[in-house]
Amino acid sequence: MRKNNFIQIITTFERKKDAKLLANILLKKRVAVCIQIIENIESYYWWEGKIEKGKEILLFIKTKEEMYKKIEKIIKENHPYKIPEIISFKIHKGSKEYLKWIKEEIGNNN
């Protein structure tokens, strides 16, 4: 397997129903293999010149690097935020079996 071929993308939502909707879209389109939804994240951030805070839901999206642009587009099309968080991290190492599973499932249209 090519090194650095796998990534994890993170994004956040205010409402769980929006997070679940995106997770289902990404999985049905076979551009992601696993999406974890973590609730009750407390976020502090600058917005329009002042510090804001709020509760958010964090999504961890596992995929192949080649799917990044498609996933970014899908997130932007289905996200209520004006500027959604879309950040990607390379998966430098992982179990051989897990990375093989990602490789086999992404884009698999069985």
Structure keywords:
Alpha-Beta Plaits, alpha+beta, 4-stranded antiparallel beta sheet, 37% strand, elongated, single chain, 4 strands, 110 residues
**Helix-strand pattern, N to C?**
EHEEHEH
The order of strands across the largest sheet is 2-3-1-4
Helix percentage range: 25-40%
The first-level CATH class name = Alpha Beta
The number of helices is 3
Strand content range: 35-45%
Instruction: Please state the overall shape, judged from the principal axes of the Cα atoms.
Output: elongated
Q: Quick one: biggest sheet?
A: 4 strands, antiparallel
What distance lies between the first and last C-alpha atoms, to the nearest angstrom?
Answer: 22 Å
Runs with pLDDT <50, length 5+? none
CATH architecture annotation name? 2-Layer Sandwich
Task: Report the structural category.
Answer: alpha+beta
- The total beta strand count reads 4
Rg for CA atoms: 15 Å
What is the number of independent domains? 1
What's the assembly state of these chains?
single chain
